[in-house]
């Protein structure tokens, strides 16, 4: 019986014993139907306790480790482990899959940011708030909110209420209350994100599970208790399971579920208890199983339906297969590895892991005997059929035989194996034993002596009592054909039913026929176990199969359904047949395939895999650009002015495609060939082309209304285009789901859906909503090739696919052509039948019978040979399909003649008179035929290899040169038909040949890229210097090598070849074809590397040949594998057809520079770093303070000290009678605006009442009338762009984009926030894949879509549906910086992007982005400049502002005019007013009488009105404009925001700020709420906090570094970057004195408290003292010596006699004033009272240094005047509030974000009412009002991100 088919019987899962309690929690629930749902191994189980019945969900392939129940308690979600983990959602009634969520957890939708500790134990949705969830784990709890596509976490604040510790489980209640169970047994209660109370000692040990129900909460812990709590978490009752009847000592609860009066409890040891609340001491055990360790032992009782299992948990259990219950359990001393029951069913033998074995009585589990003869584990034991012997096989390669009757005395030993024993079987007469060992050897022994049997004859007649061996002739078939791996663990044969089951390492149970002799037999397979299945056995009566899982501890019981029962069982229960749908067919499918049609065979072999996909071209180009930099020394020629247009294509793709030919509505015919969709009008014999594809089209389907067509192509991420046959415009592009290619598409009957099939290994089938571009569903097709997909017209959700072995092929329609071609497509319509054949022909059959041939082409195989006639519009092609064809190139476009050849051909050539045609064949022969009749004239064969090129000499055509692939060129005399010469010397095959005009010289190219010259006719090799070669006149030029065509080789010449070229007869334009299917035109000669070109796509793979016709009117190209012949019309310069869409541009951007402007260059090159990576702003060195070892402080010294009590650390000014600590800071004012490198970021809201703008990481809403500000502070890093939604439905909705790090979707990834400007609610957060940051955002016309542009190297453009957080489309924008991208104000699909030397016009089609480059060609001398801004007009007009000050006007994507010098400098910003269409532009100009930096234009940009900004600057540089009612809002580079009236041109400055360089200097007035700032822009400005404005400004001419008020507030000292310092009088702002004693920057300057001394600290490691009482001469009186590094901060003591200096080497030193001596006595230093404290160093402030400050520093600090608080500023832009002093490391603090970059300085104002902080790079001041307990009248909104960190 060598039948290799699968058995016809099958198995059905009937019961699973066990429950997964180990390493899992919260996985046990009641469903709505009161059933219990849980999981074990890879099976979801629904158990009905009433009926004692189980249902199974088998959709997983690996261990399930988590389970959740839908709030309505019907749907279940389970998650599995593995390489590609996924989640299944299924219905607990029907156990059918509802949905599968894949690829979420390798890279997620909104990836849960796993905490650094990596362990998340529990996660719970808040049932009362739809988009909040909570997660907990090692030492953390996080509260997440889902907004847009990103989850943002807030850490729970443990505060003083509880200890920070590991949280294990959660339950959510109403009103934002969350309960969580902790590792120490406490329950923590959270309100919002704060811990409000703890319930201590709820359990004695960790709480593993918490379950909420209507009545309250149930918790279960490691202590084995279940506690019930009411809704307010007051205890109701305790159930201690360890004390109950079923309890035992180590019981630990892993899962609990409370519903009504029932409680389910799952334990660590895989038991499930059900407790009824009234009888809580009698829990009912409803499920149990083995727990820890592996499960290997399995035995079945010989006469009863019992199974025995034993495991590493040391227990042996007996299960009843009928009652599905455990009936006995006994614990042994050792882990059990195997078991056997004696033939009479009385004894149970167990083999142990330590080498012993024990025999028990089955009746009462008492021990009979315990024997230990071996040191290593026992793997297998078996009783002999007569019951006399027990064979015991162990890990040390031997089998011992024991006599049962002699109380198990050892009677024999089998030695012969070299490896451990794995399986044993006795013969029926008990005289022989066969064994298998770990090496797969099969040995035989005579019993009971144990002698090995080697005689083959003796073995022949043995009947075996059982068969459990995995090797042996009878079970050959269980092993795959070509594998020798040992992964089958167990076999058991059912002799009667002639079937056997096997168990393997992949969790699969298989059913084979028995015996099965030939390898690779068919089988049925059953999934369920997750890891390896260790053992499998038939029950005694063959009713059931029992299998056990190793790591999943489970016992599965399968019902065996023999063939005859199959028919009956079908109508018993539908559920049973479902389970079988899982039995997959086996792998060895091809073993019985019926005979295949040879064509179909070929078609299934075609792979469509490419070495290089077109998608990779941009990366390859980038890689090669580096190489080119060196080569581009020669000035490259510009691209030729002439161009070509695709005119006609011969050929139809029939050889591997089908059903791809249709009539359109208008009666035209649509089909495809190569990468072109063709619409053919047969009345006019013209073709129109859809050229949107970039690789082979493989399938085509037509919409039911016959107006749209879908085509699918080859590609790594292949796309489907849906396009209109009338306009040839794409409507939608679908991609993202098919790899390698799309082989079949079909529309549904209503035309709304589209089905497509991929050619990946599973032939995925995808159903699309094509208009939206969304995937509706995707499913694996079949492993074999699918040819056709059809949507059932009557039931649009049914698909039919046809392919190998899964539907019979339809029969052929017989059409008698010359070879009865096979038909690949049939289409009806317009009274005709269209037929497409495999030979690439399209026929039209009239109903009355006549047949017309419409289109013809070559068949399969590559087309290489192409020749054009010397004076007629015809050409010849020859192909691997063994045909030679002559084509008419005149308007009739038909094939004139065809002739079959004996072999395929690769080349052909017309003689100069056009009468003869020479053809080179693939077998090394060539023939010359009559060009009219195609009859043979002569043929030769001198070579064995392919003839690769053949050429007649010019003139009379006396010689014929024939080149072959065996490196020779033969020269024949045509007249005498003799070979006259051989050209030798080529080192590779010949690729191209050309004659010179005289017919005396041959130029030859070879495959090794050699260019060789031979003299005709003898073939002597010549060496000719390059210069001479250029002077030779060539009769033709088809060569691709040499200096004349160096420029035709692309940058990626290593990967691709230029395969062909041809020069026009006027020697001006060289056409080339290459391996990517591109046809390119170059100017000739193309000298210098990487010439400019025009490029055309139409062929799919490689273009094998190109030829101009005799009069250069057409270019003919042939594609290799796509077998098509294309004709291109040649258009001279000037005759440009207006409708013609010109070619794609060259690979490389032009060197013409796009113009230069310092601001643009700076914006382009600016590198945004994110805070997490920020480094310190000062060049510090040394050991950070918190890492230094320090001597013991006073507190640690001996307590008995007679010293005076310690004085105060800080002189406190009388702030109030009671000192109150400061509770909190709130952001109140921000001075400054980000104008220097951002634009279009100031907008009006509410009809001009409010202004919105941004600076640093804060969005600011400024009320024009009151001057008050409110802030949006959810960004965590610099904002770079801002836009306002103009649609009335979304008023005041703002989108802002920020800087970020990598695009890994983590918390530091760049993000876009969409928020409401009035109430500052975040509406959506879009984490995006733009690494580095988002530089431009724009809303669409309906306001629903948002466009964003990244700063990543590709400058990706992404379109979002921002409300859902869904990314609709994304595509690389341009390889250089994009400055702005904006939607057209009237469109949701059209937008324009501008940037460095580019402007692109984009269309959103479905989910794809299509773009066109702006065409400059129509205007003379127009060159592509760097474009900076964009605005729109009616009728598809677009205006772009350039770097030179011009404005370009575009119609569609063609430049139609230029508004020259709209501004004198770059046009940085343009704004389109939606109400009246007027356009505002802003640029960089010097103010003059007629010109201004802001201009208002009419709709066509013809007339304008200029506005001057009265800022007093030399040049105004406008970065942002916006127009409201009668006003224009202007943001400048100098960080001012100005309002200009349209009528009176009056300017009103709203916002001021420093513009350049960090602000280092900051000083607060000693008695009023004023402060001074000094920055590197050379200004010192005075600000009033209460009035919220700048009062005064002094320009110093040099960069200022530091400022200080005198104690009375009448003088100001300013230190400069150049070493000078100035003292001003405050009242008059006159200079009182100035001095320059140093050459490097002054870092800090201080007046002494008694106003006598001025201390000046500089970068020269010095502090100078000046005595102010000596008058304004300012002579230095002394200075401090040996300061180790530059000075950072200085503070005087309260009595003006000491100065503390902190330095750049993290050291703080104290000096005497005015002598400058260092004070070293630590006791003295500790007693000094300081007047101020701004030092970041010293023991008193060691706590301000954070753990994470590896790269970054704390830059500044200031202690409040009350002396009990300290604020600091650091390189992360954080303001932190500490208690002072803070001598412990890593002190607790509150944090505030406001700045983005480094903070450089921070101060309290007088009276501690405000904190003022200055930012380094963000040029702004922030002032925080201070909230203390005493000043309750402040009504500012409190900072909400107050975090406490530890």
Brief rundown of the structure:
The chain is mainly beta. Strand 26 and strand 27 form a beta hairpin.
Identify the notable features of this structure and list them briefly:
repeat; HELP; eight-stranded antiparallel beta sheet; Beta-prop_EML-like_2nd; 45% strand; flat; Methylamine Dehydrogenase, Chain H; 1846 residues; mainly beta; disordered C terminus; WD repeat; 141 strands; single chain; EMAL5 protein
Write structural notes for this entry:
- It comes from Willisornis vidua.
- With 1846 residues, the chain is mainly β.
- The protein has six domains: 10-286, YVTN repeat-like/Quinoprotein amine dehydrogenase (Methylamine Dehydrogenase, Chain H), CATH 2.130.10.10; 296-461, Methylamine Dehydrogenase, Chain H; 646-851, 7 Propeller (Methylamine Dehydrogenase, Chain H); 1037-1127; 1233-1551, Methylamine Dehydrogenase, Chain H (7 Propeller), CATH 2.130.10.10; 1559-1828, Methylamine Dehydrogenase, Chain H (7 Propeller), CATH 2.130.10.10.
- The strands form 34 sheets. Strands 111, 112, 113, 114, 115, 116, 117 and 118 form an eight-stranded antiparallel β-sheet that branches.
Number of strands: 141
Provide a count of the helices: 8
The rough form would be described as: flat
Mind describing the biggest β-sheet?
8 strands, antiparallel
**CATH topology value of the largest domain:** Methylamine Dehydrogenase, Chain H
Mean pLDDT: 78
Structural class assignment: mainly beta
In total, how many domains does the architecture comprise?
A: 6
What is the fold's blueprint, element by element?
Elements: E1 10-17, E2 29-30, E3 36-40, E4 43-48, E5 53-57, E6 64-69, E7 75-80, E8 87-91, E9 97-101, E10 120-125, E11 132-137, E12 140-147, E13 150-155, E14 167-172, E15 177-182, E16 187-191, E17 194-199, E18 207-212, E19 217-221, E20 225-229, E21 235-240, E22 253-259, E23 262-267, E24 272-276, E25 284-287, E26 295-300, E27 306-311, E28 315-320, E29 325-331, E30 336-341, E31 347-352, E32 356-361, E33 367-372, E34 378-383, E35 389-394, E36 398-403, E37 409-415, E38 421-426, E39 432-437, E40 442-446, E41 451-452, H1 456-460, E42 488-494, E43 499-504, E44 508-513, E45 524-527, E46 533-538, E47 544-549, E48 555-561, H2 563-569, H3 574-580, H4 598-605, H5 617-631, E49 643-650, E50 662-663, E51 669-673, E52 676-681, E53 686-690, E54 697-702, E55 708-724, E56 730-747, E57 753-758, E58 765-769, E59 774-779, E60 786-791, E61 799-803, E62 823-829, E63 832-837, E64 842-846, E65 851-855, E66 863-868, E67 874-879, E68 883-888, E69 895-900, E70 905-910, E71 916-921, E72 925-930, E73 936-941, E74 947-952, E75 959-964, ...
Antiparallel strand pairs: 1-48, 2-3, 3-4, 4-5, 6-7, 7-8, 8-9, 10-11, 11-12, 12-13, 14-15, 15-16, 16-17, 18-19, 19-20, 20-21, 22-23, 23-24, 24-25, 26-27, 27-28, 28-29, 30-31, 31-32, 32-33, 34-35, 35-36, 36-37, 38-39, 39-40, 40-41, 42-43, 43-44, 44-45, 46-47, 47-48, 49-88, 50-51, 51-52, 52-53, ...
């Amino acid at each position: 019986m060598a039948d290799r088919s699968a058995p016809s019987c099958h198995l059905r899962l009937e019961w699973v014993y066990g429950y997964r309690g180990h390493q899992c929690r919260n996985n046990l629930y009641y469903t709505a139907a009161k059933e219990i749902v849980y999981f074990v191994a890879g099976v979801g189980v629904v158990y009905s306790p009433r009926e004692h019945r189980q249902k199974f969900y088998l959709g997983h392939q690996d261990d399930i480790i988590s389970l959740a129940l839908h709030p309505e308690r019907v749907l279940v979600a389970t998650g599995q482990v593995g390489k590609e983990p996924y989640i299944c959602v299924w219905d607990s009634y029907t156990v059918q899959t509802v949905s599968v969520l894949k690829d979420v957890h390798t890279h997620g939708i909104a990836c849960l940011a796993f905490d650094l500790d990596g362990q998340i134990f529990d996660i719970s949705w808040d049932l009362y708030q739809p988009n909040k969830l909570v997660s907990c784990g090692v030492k953390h709890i996080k509260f997440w909110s889902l907004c847009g596509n990103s989850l943002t976490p807030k850490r729970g604040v443990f505060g003083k209420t509880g200890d920070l510790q590991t949280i294990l489980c959660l339950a959510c209640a109403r009103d934002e209350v969350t309960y969580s169970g902790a590792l120490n047994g406490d329950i923590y209660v959270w309100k919002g994100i704060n811990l409000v109370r703890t319930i201590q000692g709820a359990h004695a040990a960790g709480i593993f599970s918490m379950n909420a129900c209507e009545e309250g909460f149930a918790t279960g812990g490691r202590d084995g208790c279940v506690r019930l709590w009411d809704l307010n978490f007051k205890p109701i009752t305790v159930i201690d399971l360890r004390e109950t009847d079923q309890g035992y000592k180590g019981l630990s609860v892993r899962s609990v579920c409370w519903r009504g009066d029932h409680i389910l409890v799952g334990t660590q040891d895989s038991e499930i208890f059900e407790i009824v609340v009234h009888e809580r001491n009698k829990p009912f055990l409803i499920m149990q199983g083995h727990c820890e360790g592996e499960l290997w032992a399995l035995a079945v009782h010989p006469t009863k339906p019992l199974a025995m299992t034993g495991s590493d948990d040391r227990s042996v259990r007996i299960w009843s297969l009928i009652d599905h219950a455990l009936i006995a359990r006994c614990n042994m001393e050792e882990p059990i590895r195997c078991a056997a029951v004696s033939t009479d069913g009385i004894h149970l033998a167990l083999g142990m892991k330590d080498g012993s074995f024990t025999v028990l009585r089955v009746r009462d589990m008492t021990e009979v005997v315990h024997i230990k003869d071996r040191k290593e584990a026992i793997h297998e034991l078996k009783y002999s059929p007569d019951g006399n012997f027990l064979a015991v096989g162990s890990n040390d390669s031997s089998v011992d035989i024991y006599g049962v009757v002699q109380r198990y005395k050892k009677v024999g030993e089998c030695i012969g194996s070299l490896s451990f024993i794995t399986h044993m079987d006795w013969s029926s007469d008990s005289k022989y034993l066969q064994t298998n060992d770990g090496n797969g050897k099969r040995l035989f022994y005579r019993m009971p002596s144990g002698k090995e049997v080697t005689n083959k004859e003796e073995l022949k007649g043995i009947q075996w009592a059982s068969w459990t061996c995995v090797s042996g002739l009878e079970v050959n078939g269980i092993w795959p054909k070509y594998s020798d791996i040992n992964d089958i663990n167990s076999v058991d044969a059912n002799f009667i039913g002639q079937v056997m089951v096997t168990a393997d390492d992949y969790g699969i149970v298989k059913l084979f026929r028995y015996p099965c002799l030939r390898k690779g037999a068919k089988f049925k397979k059953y999934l369920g176990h997750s890891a390896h299945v260790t053992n499998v056995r038939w029950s005694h009566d063959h009713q059931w199969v029992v299998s056990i899982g190793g790591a999943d501890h489970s016992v599965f019981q399968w019902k065996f359904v023999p063939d005859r029962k199959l028919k009956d069982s079908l109508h018993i229960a539908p559920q049973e047949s479902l389970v079988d749908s899982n039995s997959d067919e086996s792998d060895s499918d091809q073993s019985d395939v019926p005979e295949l049609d040879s064509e179909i065979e070929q078609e299934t072999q075609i792979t469509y895999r490419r070495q290089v996909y077109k998608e990779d071209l941009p990366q390859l180009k980038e890689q090669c650009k580096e190489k080119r930099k060196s080569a581009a020394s020669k000035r490259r020629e510009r691209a030729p002015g002439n161009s070509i247009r695709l005119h006609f294509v011969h050929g139809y793709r029939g050889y591997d495609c089908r059903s791809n030919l249709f009539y359109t509505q208008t009666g035209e015919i649509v089909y495809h060939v190569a990468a072109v969709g063709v619409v053919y009008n047969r009345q006019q014999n013209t073709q129109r082309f859809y050229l949107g594809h970039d690789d082979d089209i493989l399938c085509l389907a037509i919409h039911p209304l016959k107006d749209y067509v879908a085509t699918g192509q080859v590609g790594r991420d292949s796309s489907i285009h849906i396009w209109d046959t009338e306009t040839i415009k794409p409507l939608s592009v679908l991609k993202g789901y098919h790899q390698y290619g799309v082989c079949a598409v079909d529309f549904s009957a209503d035309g709304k859906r589209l089905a497509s099939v991929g050619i990946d290994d599973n032939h995925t089938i995808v159903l699309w909503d094509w208009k939206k571009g969304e995937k509706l569903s995707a499913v694996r097709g079949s492993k074999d090739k699918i040819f056709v997909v059809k949507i059932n017209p009557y039931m649009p959700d049914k698909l039919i696919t046809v392919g190998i072995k899964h539907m019979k092929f339809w029969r052929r329609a017989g059409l008698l052509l010359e070879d009865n071609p096979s038909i690949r497509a049939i289409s009806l319509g317009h009274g005709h039948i269209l037929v497409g054949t495999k030979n690439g022909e399209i026929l039209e059959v009239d109903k009355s019978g006549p047949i017309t041939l419409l289109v013809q082409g070559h068949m399969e195989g590559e087309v290489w040979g192409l020749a054009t006639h010397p004076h007629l519009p015809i050409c010849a092609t020859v192909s691997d399909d063994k045909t030679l064809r002559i084509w008419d190139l005149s308007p009739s476009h038909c094939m004139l003649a065809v002739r079959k050849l004996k072999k395929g051909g690769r080349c052909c050539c017309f003689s100069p008179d056009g009468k003869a045609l020479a053809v080179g064949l693939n077998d090394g022969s060539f023939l010359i035929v009559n060009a009219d009749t195609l009859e043979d004239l002569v043929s030769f064969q001198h070579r064995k290899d392919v003839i690769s090129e053949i050429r007649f000499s010019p003139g009379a055509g006396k010689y014929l040169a024939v080149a072959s692939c065996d490196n020779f060129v033969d020269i024949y005399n045509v007249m005498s038909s003799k070979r006259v010469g051989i050209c030798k010397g080529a080192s590779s095959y010949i690729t191209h040949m050309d004659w010179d005009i005289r017919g005396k010289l041959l130029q030859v190219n070879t495959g090794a890229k050699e260019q060789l010259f031979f003299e005709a006719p003898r073939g002597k090799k010549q060496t000719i210097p390059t210069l001479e070669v250029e002077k030779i006149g060539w009769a033709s030029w088809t060569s691709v090598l040499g200096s004349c065509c160096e420029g035709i080789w692309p940058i990626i010449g290593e990967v691709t070849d230029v395969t062909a070229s041809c020069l026009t007869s006027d020697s001006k334009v060289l056409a080339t074809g290459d391996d990517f299917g591109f046809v390119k035109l170059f100017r000739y000669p193309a000298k210098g590397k990487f010439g400019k070109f025009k490029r055309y796509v139409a062929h799919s793979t490689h273009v094998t040949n190109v030829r101009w016709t005799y009069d250069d009117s057409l270019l003919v190209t042939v594609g290799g594998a796509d077998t098509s012949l294309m004709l291109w019309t040649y258009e001279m310069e000037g005759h440009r057809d207006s409708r013609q869409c010109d070619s794609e541009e060259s690979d490389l951007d032009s060197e013409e520079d796009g113009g230069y402007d310092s601001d643009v260059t700076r914006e382009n090159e600016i590198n945004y770093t994110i805070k997490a990576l920020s480094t310190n702003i000062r060049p510090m060195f040394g050991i950070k303070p918190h890492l230094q070892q320090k001597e013991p402080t006073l507190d640690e010294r001996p307590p008995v000290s007679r010293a005076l009590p310690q004085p105060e650390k800080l002189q406190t000014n009388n702030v109030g009678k009671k000192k109150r600590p400061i509770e909190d800071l709130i952001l109140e004012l921000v001075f400054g605006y980000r104008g220097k490198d951002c634009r279009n970021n100031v907008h009006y809201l509410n009809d001009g009442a409010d202004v919105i703008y941004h600076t640093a990481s804060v969005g600011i809403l400024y009320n024009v009338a009151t001057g008050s500000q409110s802030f949006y502070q959810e960004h965590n890093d610099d904002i770079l762009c801002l836009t306002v939604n103009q649609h009335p439905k979304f008023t005041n909705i703002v989108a802002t984009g920020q800087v970020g790090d990598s695009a890994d979707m983590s918390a530091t990834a760049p993000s876009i926030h969409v928020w409401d400007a009035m109430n500052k609610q975040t509406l959506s957060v879009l984490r995006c894949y733009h690494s580095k940051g988002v530089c431009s955002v724009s809303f669409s016309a309906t306001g629903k879509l948002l466009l964003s542009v990244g700063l990543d190297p590709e400058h990706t453009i992404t379109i979002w549906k921002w409300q859902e957080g869904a990314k609709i489309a994304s595509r690389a924008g341009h390889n250089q910086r994009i400055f702005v991208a904006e939607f057209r104000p009237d469109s949701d699909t059209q937008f324009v992007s501008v940037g460095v030397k580019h402007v692109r016009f984009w269309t959103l089609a479905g989910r794809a982005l299509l773009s066109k480059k702006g065409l400059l060609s129509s205007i003379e001398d127009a060159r592509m400049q760097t474009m900076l801004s964009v605005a729109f007009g009616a009728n598809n007009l677009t205006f772009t502002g350039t770097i030179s000050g011009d404005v370009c006007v575009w119609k569609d994507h063609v430049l139609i005019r230029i508004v020259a010098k709209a501004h004198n400098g770059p046009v940085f910003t343009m704004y389109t007013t939606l109400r009246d269409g007027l356009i505002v532009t802003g640029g960089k100009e010097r103010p003059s009488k007629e010109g201004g930096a802001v201009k208002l234009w009419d709709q066509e940009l013809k007339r304008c009105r200029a506005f001057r900004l009265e800022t007093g600057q030399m040049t105004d540089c406008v970065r942002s404009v916006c127009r409201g009612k009668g006003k224009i809002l202007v943001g400048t580079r100098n960080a001012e925001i100005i309002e200009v009236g349209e009528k009176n041109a009056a300017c009103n400055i709203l916002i001021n700020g420093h513009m350049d360089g960090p602000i280092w200097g900051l000083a607060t007035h000693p008695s009023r709420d004023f402060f001074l700032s000094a920055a590197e822009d050379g200004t010192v400005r005075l600000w009033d906090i209460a009035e919220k404005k700048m009062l005064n400004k002094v320009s110093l001419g040099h960069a200022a570094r530091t400022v200080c008020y005198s104690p009375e507030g009448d003088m100001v000292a300013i230190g400069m970057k150049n070493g000078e310092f100035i003292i001003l009088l405050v009242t008059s702002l006159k200079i009182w004195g100035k001095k320059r004693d140093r050459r490097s920057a002054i870092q800090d300057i201080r007046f002494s408290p008694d106003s006598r001394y001025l201390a000046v600290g500089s970068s020269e490691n010095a502090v100078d003292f000046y005595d102010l009482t000596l008058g304004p001469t300012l002579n230095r009186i002394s200075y401090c010596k040996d300061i180790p590094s530059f000075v950072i901060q200085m503070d005087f003591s309260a009595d003006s006699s000491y100065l503390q200096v902190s330095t750049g080497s993290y050291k703080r030193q104290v000096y005497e004033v005015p002598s400058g001596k260092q004070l070293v006595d630590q006791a003295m230093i500790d007693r000094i009272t300081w007047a101020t404290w701004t030092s970041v160093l010293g023991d008193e402030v060691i706590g301000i240094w954070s753990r994470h400050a590896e790269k970054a520093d704390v830059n500044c600090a200031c202690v409040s005047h009350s002396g009990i608080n300290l604020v600091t500023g650091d390189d992360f832009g954080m303001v932190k509030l500490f208690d002072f002093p803070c001598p412990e490391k890593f002190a607790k603090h509150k944090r505030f974000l406001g700045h983005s970059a480094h903070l450089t300085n921070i101060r309290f104002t007088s009276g501690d009412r405000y904190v003022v902080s200055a930012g380094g790079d963000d040029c702004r001041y922030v002032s925080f009002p201070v909230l203390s307990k005493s000043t309750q009248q402040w009504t500012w909104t409190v900072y909400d991100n107050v975090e406490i960190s530890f």
